[in-house]
Amino acid sequence: MSKQKRYSPEVRERAVRMLLEHEREYESRWAAMVSIATKIGCTPETLRSWVKQEEIETGRRDGLTSE
Fold first, then answer.
1. Inter-axis angle of helices 29-40 and 9-22, to 10 degrees?
2. d(CA 22, CA 4)
3. What are the C-alpha distances in Å from 58 to residues 15, 46, 51?
4. pLDDT at 65
5. pTM of the full predicted structure?
6. What is the per-residue pLDDT across 10-52, written as a single tens digit (0 to 9) for each?
7. Which positions ≥6 away from 8 have C-beta within 8 Å?
8. 45 exposed, middle or buried (CB, 10 Å; 0-12, 13-18, 19+)?
9. Helix-helix angle 9-22:44-57, to 10 degrees
10. What is the DSSP letter of 24?
11. Rounded to whole angstroms, how far apart are CA atoms 18 and 37?
12. Cα(59)–Cα(31) distance, rounded to whole angstroms?
């Protein structure tokens, strides 16, 4: 059975902000996600889902907002 970790909203916001600010410094968005996720202690897939939701919330991507 896997153990599910919960991250505070502050950690999520910081990780997303780090990715959006620094992704151009990496070969690909995925490479940036792997690097940043390792630094904050989550999986790259978790970070990918946070970024996707942030892009939906801000209108940069189609999808349902959390509201």
1. 140
2. 27
3. 16, 19, 11
4. 73
5. 0.82
6. 999 999 999 999 999 999 999 999 999 999 999 999 999 999 9
7. none
8. exposed
9. 90
10. G
11. 10
12. 24
pLDDT at 7: 92
Return the residue matching tokens 């410094």.
Answer: 25
pLDDT band of 9, cuts 50, 70, 90: very high
Q: At what angle do helices 29-40 and 44-57 cross, to 10 degrees?
A: 110
Per the CB < 8 A criterion, the answer to whether 19 and 28 are in contact is: no
Please give the structure tokens belonging to residue 49: 């889902």
Q: What is the largest CA-CA distance in the chain?
A: 36
Dihedral, 52, 10, 24, 38 alpha carbons, nearest 10: -90
Hey, what are 67's tokens? 């509201």
